[in-house]
TrEMBL record:
Family: Belongs to the telombin family.
Principal cellular location given in the protein's record: nucleus
Keywords (A to Z) from UniProt: Chromosome, DNA-binding, Nucleus, Telomere
Protein name as it appears in the record: Protection of telomeres protein 1
Organism from which the protein derives: Apteryx mantelli
Alphabetized InterPro entries for the sequence: NA-bd_OB-fold, POT1, POT1_C_insert, POT1PC, Telomer_end-bd_POT1/Cdc13
Entries under SUPFAM superfamilies matching the protein: Nucleic acid-binding proteins
Cell location: Chromosome, Telomere; Nucleus
Gene3D superfamilies for the chain: Nucleic acid-binding proteins
Domain annotation Telomeric single stranded DNA binding POT1/Cdc13: ranges: 157-287
Length: 725
């Protein structure tokens, strides 16, 4: 019989294998050899569903692991079974079974590079005279009968300090750090998890899957995970884990005394009683040896310049622009500071209007950026969230004495930034729901109206403003529709009054300057009150060309806080280029979190890098250190924005000063922080226009002033100021 079940009695097979068969090791298998009288033995670690080929032939795929070579780089092989044998095997095989294949053929594996298994596939069919023997402890009434009792396989779990390069292992670990799943550069979802265990070793795992639900459901630091069939690779002297074929995971709450209930989307998994003991032991060890309390806070406990995790309920959302999205959330407590209300059109705000009005003093606006926008759009109103690494910033609007707190979820995934959706069965959600239900909303509506700063909106962009003004010139009169509580005042009365005052006028727009939109944008220094023209790209290009004439100093490569690459261009100029990538915790970060310095680059190359990486600083070499270029050039580029420094007020420091930012626990690489450590007084982009208004009683010059923050144009313009003509 081609497929036979052999019973194990007291550790020995009840029926021995045919005497003519000789065992073959995995490492000795190679194409072109005759395996008619040979057999290969391994343990079933993965099996795929039974399928049919195009010609109707049954097909079944099994992955066997050679336990005798478990520490080898390649220790598993694909078994491809065809015809009646495929159907018979699919009925009886179980993970953990000992599987013997005899009389097989070898064919080159087309998936060896992707799955990390043996370079050949082992092919089995009844027509080829193959035979399969499956050792089982299950009770069977006949060799061809499917076992009626399912016995869970016995898995071996490897401590983190015993991991070896190239092996596929099972393991338990405690989550010390994680990044919630996010969309990778391709189509898969990705999650990064750093694990520890009582061996005091550490393992960082990068997990990919096309199915979001198949990634570990980790909600907080201290959770415990069980990984099956994770591949181990060595990189820069450290072991790292990556997903391999058949990867599976379970996640458990790491709190001592919490129910041992696995989180998984799979309906088929094994979890033995003895593993519950493992969970309890890991919980106890973590409680005694790890500081696993994350930076969690309630809104009532937030402070400016804080990074924290927030468990909350989503009550509203709205698109702000192409790179940012608004989430309105609450946790039942009130922020002790006035909070920023992001200006959006009422028609763009999703959520129950009555509830939003009722909770207006308890909700906060969180602005999420870049890679988080896609997920934010898909969130359902009413869902419970855990938002990781929210940044609170203190700011103030123009002509406002009171400052306010802004909530930002910056782009990228550094420091675990992300958004997780919590199920209602989560203990933290149950606790939050009970608390929200106890909140007296009537009291919240009686809170002082100044609990948040309502910032007036401005034109969505300056292009709209210019078009609006051009239309106004074609009309005899333009009416300013705001401030309906004020009566119209003639310009002559205004000209004869003492400033400052507020008026509403009805006047004709005679002229406005400048006529060209780009001429409205200037660079302003708040320290010396100087106003400068924005340099054009040609000036920057010439500065870069001049800096490229000096070759990078090779002695400044690869320091303790940055890694360097250097090459020579293949053109006639043989230009030398060096790029220095700033590290954090001695590791390079993802591109969207990376600050780099470039020497010898052209304008085109610098722009290309700024679109790929978070921050780009053009530099040149000196004998002892890297330094900034002339301050006529931008000292920093982020995306399409160039940041300039004031030549008069700045005292530039060497690039080594940046190492203090790189050493921070959570460097945000904000332009203002970079400028400060480099001794730069940053120039601010400002928008300035002059209007001449007439109404028959007089003429008035009015000036409009606005400025750009790191997140775009300020949401509140300065009032129009005037003078007599």
């Amino acid at each position: 019989m081609p497929v036979q079940l052999l019973k194990i009695i007291k550790g020995e097979s009840e029926t021995p294998l045919p005497s003519h068969l000789q065992k073959e090791d995995l490492k000795c298998l190679q194409e072109g050899c005759d395996y008619t009288n040979k057999y290969f033995q391994g343990t079933v670690v993965l099996s795929y569903p039974l399928t049919k080929l195009r010609d109707g032939t049954d097909f079944f795929k099994v992955v066997l692991q050679d336990l005798n070579n478990s520490c080898s780089r390649i220790n598993s092989i694909n078994i491809l079974i065809y015809g009646k044998m495929a159907e018979d095997c699919a009925k009886v095989i179980r993970h953990g079974d000992t599987f013997v294949v005899a009389g097989f053929k070898l064919a080159k594996s087309p998936t060896a590079r992707e799955d990390g298994r043996h370079g050949c596939d082992l092919e089995v069919s009844e027509e080829a005279g193959s035979a399969i023997y499956i050792y089982t402890k299950r009770s069977t009434s006949a060799a061809s009968e499917t076992a009626s009792v399912s016995v869970a396989p016995k898995y071996v779990y490897t401590p983190l300090n015993h991991l070896k390069d190239g092996t596929v292992v099972n393991l338990y670990g405690i989550v010390k750090f994680f990044k919630p799943p996010y969309v990778s550069k391709g189509t898969d979802y990705c999650s990064v998890v750093t694990l520890v265990d009582p061996s005091n070793a550490k393992l960082t795992c990068t997990l990919f899957s096309g199915n979001l639900d198949s990634l570990p459901k980790i909600y907080k630091i201290g959770d415990i995970v069980r990984f099956h069939r994770i591949k181990i690779r060595e990189y820069n002297g450290q072991m790292q884990g990556i997903t391999s074929g058949g990867f599976a995971s379970l996640t458990f709450d790491g709190s001592v005394g919490a129910p041992v209930v696995p989180r998984t989307s799979s309906k088929l998994y094994t979890f033995l009683d003895e593993e519950q003991k493992t969970i309890e032991e890991l919980r106890a060890w973590a409680a005694s040896n790890l500081s696993i309390s994350g930076p969690t806070a309630k809104l009532s406990g937030v402070q400016p310049m804080l990074f924290f995790d927030l468990t909350c309920q989503l009550v509203g959302k709205a698109r702000v622009d192409g790179s940012s999205f608004l989430l309105k959330v609450w946790d039942g407590t009130k922020c002790p500071y006035p909070t920023w209300k992001v200006p959006v059109e009422a028609r763009d705000l999703e959520g129950e209007k009555g509830l939003l009005q009722q909770l207006r003093n308890l909700t906060v606006d969180i602005l999420v950026y870049d890679n988080h926008v896609q997920l934010a759009k898909s969130l359902k109103i009413g869902s419970f969230l855990r938002i990781y690494s929210i940044h609170t910033k203190q700011a103030s609007a123009d002509n406002q004495d009171v400052s306010h707190v802004e909530f930002h979820l910056h782009g990228g995934t550094c420091y675990g930034r992300g958004i997780g959706v919590l199920p209602e069965s989560n203990p933290d959600v149950k606790e939050l729901k009970a608390f929200l239900e106890s909140v007296d909303l009537a009291d919240s509506q009686n809170m002082e109206s100044m609990s948040s700063v309502e910032l007036d909106g401005i034109f969505s962009n300056v292009t709209d403003l210019q078009s609006h003004l051009q239309r106004c010139q074609q009309l005899s009169v333009t009416v300013l529709t705001d401030h309906q509580d004020l009566n119209n005042t003639g310009l002559k009365t205004i000209l004869n009054s003492t400033a400052p005052q507020q008026y509403r006028i009805r006047a004709k727009l005679r002229t406005f300057k400048p006529q060209k939109l780009h001429q409205c944008i200037k660079l302003y220094c708040s320290k010396c009150n100087s106003l400068k023209e924005v340099p054009n790209g040609d000036d920057f290009d010439l500065i870069l060309q001049d800096a490229a004439a000096t070759a990078p100093n090779p002695e400044l490569r690869n320091t303790s806080w940055y890694d360097s690459v250097m090459w020579t261009t293949q053109d006639q100029k043989q230009r030398k280029i060096a790029i220095h990538f700033v590290k954090h915790d001695e590791m390079l970060q993802e591109p969207e979190e990376t600050l780099l310095m470039i020497e010898g680059g052209t304008l085109k190359e610098v722009w290309k890098l700024s679109r790929r990486f978070k921050c780009v600083i053009p530099v040149r070499s000196t004998e002892d250190d890297l330094e900034l270029l002339d301050l006529s050039a931008p000292f920093l580029l982020q995306g399409s924005v160039k940041y300039y420094g004031c030549k008069q007020c700045s005292t530039p420091k060497t690039i080594k000063s940046l190492s203090s930012l790189a050493a921070e626990q959570r460097p945000s690489w904000e332009p203002t922080e970079i400028a400060q450590v480099l001794g730069i007084v940053p120039l601010q982009y400002v928008f300035i226009m002059k209007f001449t208004l007439v109404d028959g009683t007089g003429a008035l010059n009015a000036y409009l002033f606005d400025y750009m923050t790191c997140h775009g144009w300020n949401a509140s313009s300065s009032p129009i100021t005037s003078q007599m003509e």
